[in-house]
Design goal:
mainly beta; Immunoglobulin-like; 2 domains; six-stranded mixed sheet; 3 helices; elongated; disordered C terminus
């Protein structure tokens, strides 16, 4: 009998110890009725879960959630309002490749409540998401790093209508190509970008009935400016692709006018094959808030 009890106690201790080993203590976020708390994730948020109805909130941006305790008027009659250090809910945030969980705790004084909480990568737990091979936040930081790199390509240049287009760099990072290109306007007329199209098309001009063109959608574009006077630079992010030698990748930039100027950059498959790799350590040098002036 004693041996059975001892075995049971040892098992119970083992279970508790195992649970403590795999369940980290959740960080607390203090809230107050007079303060709106904004929680900022370093990547886009895919799902938000609030475990109780005592906290209300919504996703106000791709990577920001705002929360607040419910109003005293909404509490059931005869129930005391929230007490100092009372646990109101557990908040779970699921991003593109990471998730974070917090205990939401009530603070009696508004001065103790958090108005903005930035979730650090070090706090989040990663998970496998087959739909996302690279979070957009990471894509943005790589694009800025590419933008800040020196020009290595010299062979891809196009001149037309007083415009010059240049491919500065092509990098391969994970499952994506980062194509860094510049536009130079040699005229006195500002250039208004109406449309940017990326196509996989035949290298040789053939009859339209025989031509097979595939329109590609960039995963990300760094520069969203629609107008520039003299110089413009952008980094396009495309999913990795392969194509035969008789095909080329074309980037077409058209102007926002009836007789608008159109300039085209043609990228051969050999250029894609010669894309450089990018050291992931470079991201440590690019802060999340880095957004230099990128056109003029």
């Amino acid at each position: 009998m004693k041996s059975k009890i001892l075995t049971a106690v040892i098992c119970a201790i083992g279970i508790v110890g195992s649970a403590n080993a795999v369940t980290p203590v959740k960080e607390k976020i203090y809230v107050n009725q007079d303060v709106t708390t904004h929680i900022v994730m370093p990547e886009n948020i895919k799902l938000v879960d609030i475990s109780t109805t005592r906290i209300v909130g919504n996703q106000c941006a791709d990577n920001i959630v705002r929360i607040k305790p419910i109003s005293p008027d909404d509490i059931v009659a005869n129930q005391d309002y929230f007490r100092e250090n009372e646990l109101l809910a557990t908040l779970t945030l699921i991003g593109e490749r990471h998730m974070a969980q917090y205990d939401i705790v009530y603070a009696t004084f508004p001065s103790r409540a958090v108005s903005i909480h930035n979730v650090p990568y070090s706090y989040m737990q990663s998970y496998v998401n087959p739909e996302v091979s690279m979070p957009e936040s990471e894509m943005v930081r790589y694009a800025w790093a590419v933008y800040g790199s020196g020009r290595k390509f010299n062979q891809i240049v196009s001149n037309k209508h007083g415009m010059k287009a240049i491919v500065n760099n092509i990098y391969a990072v994970g499952d994506y190509f980062f194509i860094d290109y510049s536009l130079q306007n040699k005229t006195k007329i500002p250039y208004d970008i109406e449309e940017l199209r990326v196509k996989l098309t035949d290298k040789k001009e053939v009859k339209a009935t025989n031509s097979q063109t595939i329109e590609l959608t960039p995963a990300y574009s760094l520069n969203l400016a629609k107008r520039f006077k003299k110089n413009y630079r952008n980094v396009l992010v495309l999913p990795k692709l392969t194509f035969p030698d008789e095909k080329v990748l074309r980037i077409e930039i058209s102007e926002n006018q009836i007789s608008g100027r159109v300039i085209t950059l043609t990228i051969e498959y050999d250029d894609i094959l010669n894309a450089d790799g990018f050291d992931s350590d470079i991201l440590k040098k690019i802060p999340f808030s880095y957004q230099p002036h990128i056109y003029k």
